[in-house]
Amino acid sequence: MKGKEWYQADDVAQAYESKRFSRGGQLIDRREKRAVLDSLNPVTGADILEIACGTGRFTAMLAERGANIVGIDISDAMLAQGRRKARNNGVNDTLELLRGDAARLPFPDNHFDAVFAMRFFHLAETPGTFLTEMARVSNDIVFFDTFNHRSTRIIYNWLLPMGSHLYSRSQVKKLLSDAELAMVDDTHDFLLPYGFYRKIPNDLAHGFRDVDKSLGESEFGDALASVSYWTATVDTDSATTDTAETNLETSQHTPDGTVAADD
């Protein structure tokens, strides 16, 4: 079973993109980047954090488009690949890559305009903890993807156990609610599994992708899609209510009935 040790290995980091985003996998890379941009735009001048940034596919792309981007990852080997990519793309001075734990983000509340994670939640043992941290440091957008419980990923998990977590829509909505996030958009894609695209030449993959998108537009497309992209916003109404309740409780417990200020 793949875990933290596998993910942090030097050889895995070096071959990560060539194994997943070459051949027909180029279509996956393109679709994922489009999903990120659709959710986060406009990115120019925006302060953005990527959780589990890996080899920097998205951090470099966003830096090139003028974002103030920070990426955090647990793997030094992956971060080394990300820094190399940033240098090659001429954006190493406009992004920051840090080693850290996504469950304890080293940033103050409301620090970023947007926080996102790609290819992360299927391996997250405590998704609620991670999503709550993402919500805490964002003042607006939180974006992430999940693999779906009714998709062909079920077969993939059975054939090649990876510890991947598959989510239903109701589970995602519960996670969002618990993190005080409000869903604003969701899109679903790829009836054919990722592994299929990676095994075939890019030219051939385009034909299958056309069929895949056509099937995805049918009435059962969303239900059987392999991946979902979720866009949410910080629930300011809930935050305002919580703040008001906290202030009320504080005033009730101060001797003179005034609201005590933080030191």
From TrEMBL:
Question: SUPFAM superfamilies from the xrefs?
Answer: S-adenosyl-L-methionine-dependent methyltransferases
Q: Which GO terms describe its biological process?
A: methylation
Recorded GO molecular functions are: S-adenosylmethionine-dependent methyltransferase activity
Q: Where is this region: Disordered?
A: 240-263
Record's keyword terms, sorted: Methyltransferase, Transferase
Q: What is its EC number?
A: 2.1.1.-
Q: Which domain of life is it from?
A: Archaea
Q: Which residues cross the membrane?
A: none
- Extract the InterPro entries matched here: Methyltransf_11 (IPR013216), SAM-dependent_MTases_sf (IPR029063)
Q: Where is the Methyltransferase type domain?
A: 49-137
Signal sequence segment: none
- Please identify the protein, giving its name as recorded: Probable S-adenosylmethionine-dependent methyltransferase
The organism named in the record is Haloquadratum walsbyi (strain DSM 16790 / HBSQ001)
